[in-house]
Amino acid sequence: MNNNDDYQFLNYNLNKLINNVSTLSNLHKQLIVSNEIVVNFVNQNQNQNNNNSSNNNSGANNTNNSNNTIDIEKK
């Protein structure tokens, strides 16, 4: 290999590396967005579950809620 071949080989590999880094960066951005979507979805479902639970437990089951505290003895 002469110097020109070495240069072309290194340049080719450098360009491949740059493309790979760019691809990884784009995938990382997509992963962040996907993660936010999943977190929002889970939070919405949890909020809906909490609302459903609250609605199901309303009425007679919620009497005397102020007495549902736990006293912790100090030792």
Question: What is this structure, in a nutshell?
Answer:
The chain is mainly alpha-helical and 75 residues long.
Question: How is this structure best described in words?
Answer:
With 75 residues, the protein is mainly alpha-helical. Helix content is 72%, strand content 0%. It has 1 helix and no strands. It has one helix at 3-56. The protein is rod-shaped and about 85 Å long. It starts with a helix and ends in a 19-residue tail after the last helix. The mean pLDDT is 83. Residues 45-75 are annotated as: Disordered. Residues 45-68 have a biased composition (Low complexity).
Radius of gyration: 30 Å
Number of helices: 1
Distance between the termini: 82 Å
Query: Could you say which overall geometry the principal axes of the C-alpha atoms support?
Result: rod-shaped
Quaternary state reads: single chain
- How many extended strands? 0
Order of helices and strands: H
Low-confidence residue ranges = none
* Class by alpha and beta content: mainly alpha
Biggest beta-sheet profile: none
Average pLDDT rating: 83
Helix content: over 70%
Beta-sheet strand percentage? Answer: under 5%
What descriptors fit this protein?
single chain, 75 residues, mainly alpha, 72% helix
Q: What are the SSEs and their pairings?
A:
Blueprint: H1 3-56
